[in-house]
Amino acid sequence: MKISEITTPAYVIDEKKLKENLEILSYVQKESGAKILLAQKAFSAYKTYPMIGEYLSGATASGLYEARLAKEEMIEPLKGKRKIENHVFEPAFNDDEIKELCEICDHMVFNSLTQLEHHREVWEKNVKNGRLFVGLRINPEYSTQEGHEIYDPCASGSRLGIRNADLGDKLPKGVSGLHFHTLCEQGFEPLEKTFLEVESSFKRFFPTRKGEEGKIKWINLGGGHHITKEDYDREGLIKLVKRIKDTYGIEVYLEPGEAIALDAGLLVTTVMDIVKTEKYPVLILDTSAACHMPDVLEMPYRPPLRDSGEAGELANTYRLSSRTCLAGDIIGDYSFDKEIGIGDRLYFEDMAIYSMVKNNTFNGMPLPDIDIMHEDGEVEVLKRFGYDDFKMRL
Ligand SMILES: Cc1ncc(COP(=O)(O)O)c(C=O)c1O
Questions:
Q1: Domains of the chain
Q2: What does residue 165 show for φ and ψ, rounded to 5 degrees?
Q3: Is the CB of 256 under 6 A from ligand 1?
Q4: What proportions of the chain, in percent to the nearest 5, are helix, strand and coil?
Q5: What pLDDT digit, counting tens, does each position of 193-244 carry?
Q6: How far apart are CA 353 and CA 301, in angstroms?
Q7: Are strands 251-254 and 265-275 parallel, antiparallel or unpaired?
Q8: 187 C-alpha vs ligand 1 centroid, how far in Å?
Q9: How many other CB atoms are found less than 10 A from the CB of residue 372?
Q10: Span 3-31, mean pLDDT?
Q11: 119 CB under 6 A from ligand 1?
């Protein structure tokens, strides 16, 4: 099927672009020696996991469900072919879930010393028998972001990560690594600055020689690195990782989400009606910001749209909105060379990340199909949703 023939609304994953991103990440892994994991919170279209696992070292989860998904859809299909790691971090682990997590994960990161000790009995056996590595998330208290408090784990009052003053002189027994995640859609420079800060303020946990007892054996530099963006300083990143590995003899992990599927998907929608107003005419689309691209309202941001300009830039300006009854379900004002008509299709870009994983059926809105466009341009439907998907959650 051609993309012009698909049922809308639909997310269309671009396999070619996904592969290009994975090739870049695989190059960074090979050159630097870092292990790169897929942060599933950004992109969990698991039919692509076997492909992702061919390039990366594994996946990281925000809880039991994502960890299970990685086990079922990345680890199992690649069993005997590639060793895939399964990491998990959660601000607090549930008593009912921790045992299973210890069984299916190889790295578990705690957000507080209270949580670490609360679950010690369960995780410690797995550490002792060599199946599990346990780490602590630290808060470097070094913010490199402005304006986006909601995405800044170093913002004042943050619950994410243990502050330096709250950690003792020694790593708690059984802990072998540290984790920090502080960036969001950022380049290499903020990472370098953050690492330098961590290296100096948490110096007591870094080994002075390889394998030194009681010191870290691995560090996870989190996500938020826009590694696959054209202007990202990848050589800088490679140099930094090599330096960490050479100086301390430790394993280095990166867990980007966005970078893996950046620009690797569309949200295709059809114009259902055009409503005249005293301002711009409003296009009623069969998609919704609130339901199908919540980051547009939450972040907020203006999603890129193929063949369009800013309001007033091209001959015909419209307000793009949705068939929900939420007045604020507005995607933005866009202009086009041609007049738009009912039945026309529009293509929102960069819609693979933080879209399918966040969508919902508010207003009883149907969920978009999940399609994949293969490298030859042929589109295949991976998932189609219906009334049951709406009803079963209520
Ligand atoms: C702990 C952790 N790791 C990784 C990521 C992935 O970040 P990104 O998708 O921005 O690369 C996030 C995102 O919130 C996160 O909280």
A1: 3-11+265-351+359-391 (2.40.37.10), 33-261 (3.20.20.10)
A2: -65, -20
A3: yes
A4: 30, 25, 45
A5: 999 999 999 999 999 988 899 999 999 999 999 999 999 999 999 999 999 9
A6: 14
A7: unpaired
A8: 14
A9: 20
A10: 98
A11: no
